[in-house]
Amino acid sequence: DSGVTQTPKHLITATGQRVTLRCSPRSGDLSVYWYQQSLDQGLQFLIQYYNGEERAKGNILERFSAQQFPDLHSELNLSSLELGDSALYFCASSYTSGLYNEQFFGPGTRLTVL
Amino acid sequence: SQKIEQNSEALNIQEGKTATLTCNYTNYSPAYLQWYRQDPGRGPVFLLLIRENEKEKRKERLKVTFDTTLKQSLFHITASQPADSATYLCALEGASGTYKYIFGTGTRLKVLA
Question: Mind listing the pLDDT tens digit for each residue in B26-42?
Fold first, then answer.
């Protein structure tokens, strides 16, 4: 158990809908990272927050947005969903920013868009 | 663009042998590189970090090397066991944007009993 929690574990929804994925980082970690993993693309970095502020933005679509709250939990909002958004979404956390710290990954949320 | 290449073909080896996985990167000179293990349907788990000024790093049966001239890292598992069967990912921190945190697609290792 990495100490990172993600909810829900599974999500099935229809095209055009909007969903919210939630992540609670490990106690004491200030950075939260969101990744998308699909079968043909590997792990793709979406966005990072550090202590409530956006720190780095990766391959995140305009239909997607995220935020980190004062209690450091984070939410990833996906809207106008398309079939291609079906994937595993992972949240990771680390104490500070950057890969000189290990990232602790959550169990993921499996999103299926029908 | 910055890219990581890992052998996408699965690697099958006999129990007890040494598994060697390769990670090649292009268009960047990372200060450090990480290796993760991922089991099907689960999040990656951190294994080792190696810095650019370290040629080699060891942890129990794991060994990582980092050749900044060749732009390559090798990941070794000695005395491999069936429980080592998983996908192994390498990762590095890029400059910014899409290439900020780059993960390879991973190499699937299967250790045969």
Answer: 888 788 899 999 999 99
